Amino acid sequence: MRLLLIEDEIDLAYQLERFLIKRQYHVTVCNNLNDSLLALSNQVYDAVLLDRLLPEGDALKDIARIKKHHDGFMLVMSALGEVQDRVAAFNRDVNYYLSKPIDFDELLAILEQFERKITQTASSNPSVRAENASSSWYIKRKRLYSPDQLVIQLTAREAMMVELMIAEFGQLVTRSALIMAMNQDPINYDSKALDSAVYRIRHKIEQATGQSVPFETVHGVGYVWHD
User: Fold this and answer.
1) pLDDT-based confidence at residue 173 (cuts at 50, 70, 90)
2) 213 and 114 in a common domain
3) Are residues 110 and 174 in the same domain?
4) Per-residue pLDDT averaged across 123-149, rounded?
5) Distance (Å, whole) CA 56 – CA 33
6) Taking the CB of residue 107, how many other CB atoms lie within 10 A of it?
């Protein structure tokens, strides 16, 4: 699993990096927000581990900027451990809030739980296909394969969305269904975040294949995968 660690305490960043690499994680370390945004624009990460207090200030204020590039798992680490601090993070769609000093075993348990969830989703339906007379698309372990076997790397949430659309080939998949596929609450989920996720999927497919996307938008309602 590929992780982006955003931590400005050099010693702690080094310790976490060594700890996670020994557990077979691929880790990229950034010490400030600007470097992390650049990293996110160039690489897909399964999870982001974010120090709340960075040189630029309170990172919670920049969650929206991070989510433009990453809509997957996010864990915030902070010495600010009061209830209101945690609530502020969860209100920004953060998955976990881990108080400092970091308990490395607790961090590992959280990551392993997230990884098991991804694995269970994949194993329950490891390869979903949509086929017609001339072409087929399928998704496996967060990789979308075009009819020409071009590989498109997706984030965990993007993969959940695409997997549902492919499974419902030719049928309307509502916006609410896609939100629930990402394990989110349709009532409280920001619809603009869904639009952004769909845009990123479209962009990745078009960039990789040079072709139009294999699904169409039913404006305000949902999407139909049609090859």
Assistant:
1) confident
2) no
3) no
4) 66
5) 7
6) 18
Q: How far apart are CA 96 and CA 93, in angstroms?
A: 9
Query: What is the distance between the terminal CA atoms of the chain, rounded to a whole angstrom?
Result: 30
Contact 205, 214 (CB under 8 A): yes
59 — phi, psi (to 5°)? -65, -20
Question: How many Å apart are CA 218 and CA 151, to the nearest integer?
Answer: 26
112 or 72: which leads in pLDDT? 112
pLDDT score recorded for residue 119: 55
Query: Is the per-residue pLDDT at 65 higher than 70?
Result: yes
What span, in angstroms and rounded, lies between the C-alpha atoms of 23 and 5? 15
pTM of the model: 0.56
88 and 173 housed in the same domain: no
The SS3 of residue 81 is coil
Domain boundary among 121, 136, 171: 121
* Residue 140 half-sphere exposure toward CB, CA atoms < 13 A: 10
